[in-house]
Amino acid sequence: MRTPRTAVELTPLARWSIVALLAAALFINYVDRGAIPTAAHLIQDELSLSPKQLGVLFSAFFWTYSILQIPLGWVAERYGAQRVLAVGLALWASATMLVGFAHSFIALLLLRLLLGVGESASFPSASKLLAVTVPVGSLAMANGIVAFAYQLGPAVGAYCGGLIMVHYGWRATFWIFGGVSLLWLLPWSRVRLPPARAETASEQVSMRAILRQPSLWGTALGLFSSNYSFYFLLNWLPYYVVRERGFSTEQMATLTGSAYLASALASIAAGWAIDRFVRNGRANIAYKSVMVVAHTGTVACMLSIAFASQPWAIAGIFAYQILTGAAAAGVFAIPQILAGPAASARWVGIQNCCGNFAGVIAAALTGWLVDETGHFTAAFVTAALVSIAGLVGWVGMVPRLAPLAWPTGHGPGEVNPRVCH
After folding, report:
1. For residues 335 and 14, is the Cβ–Cβ distance under 8 A?
2. Residue 119 to residues 68, 123, 297, 307, 404, Cα–Cα distance (Å)
3. Which of 43, 130, 193, 266 is the most exposed place for a label (fewest CB within 10 A)?
4. Which are the contacts of 416, defined by CB distance < 8 A and separation ≥ 6?
5. Is residue 277 in a domain?
6. Does 64 reside within a domain?
């Protein structure tokens, strides 16, 4: 027996309002997680931190964030993604505010761990809600809107955070960002989701059946590869352009903010374009073509930033952000299509757990490389090499992008793909 891939019956206005609120939550997510990287050079000066210590702080967020993805995926399906997302946001907003009161490396470390705990609820919960409420033919656009938001988050965070730091100091940035984040809970508390037929199906898909899927490990490897470069630049780009390229704090805020804005706009455009192919029955070629271009282009961009003159390095930064923005529409739409409402939260939880260990490695390894060499060249070359692995994951290990027909029991039944139209 096959589990149908259907969306909850909602009016278009209600459906896209939910998408908008999910996008807002992920926007807040990335504003808050990017605040410490934006303030890194100021925090370093005030607290006398080394590059290695900064690398540990950047990495610490991902320790809890990665490990908790799998249990939070189960919790979101068991107790309701809407409720779990609200609790997670309240927790990470509070952690952000408390950073403004920290006066030691240990305090910052503990708050980064707490931030990871709260934010670990975001993508499993959002993916569950999107898989339940949005039809397959609109998933790329819905994920493009969400990706636009979380790509815009670093842009707004870098630009606004930089300006706040210049005029009021870095601590005020965390108080403002954390306090404003909590306002999202007001409209979210008014969302009412009707019961979904697919909700009961999640109990019928065993974790064993999910873990046996080669496509799961393909998307996990693909996300790890995508995330390595993404988190490397998210954490270290502000520090890099200030310390190695000689930008002022204001110039850094403008450059990084503009680059992230270009990434956000690319997410919307790619989502719209991919959906046109999906509606014509060409989901496989649409999503995979974007991933191929994004990963091969990332190799060129990382090498350009590392070795080229400043104008070409800046061009490489913008080109990379456009490529990663285009790929972002598919990063979570692909598992949502494969897993469907029955298993999307757990699938994305596993995928995110594996993929976000890239943040642990990229942040800490970059800090070590910079401390040892005094430059970022080796770090950019490493990011270029890791990007090649994404081609294996997204293209080689996901043989055909189509909804999976999950077995209805907890036994070891086979899982067969269906054609996606």
Report:
1. no
2. 9, 8, 29, 35, 28
3. 193
4. 404, 405
5. yes
6. yes
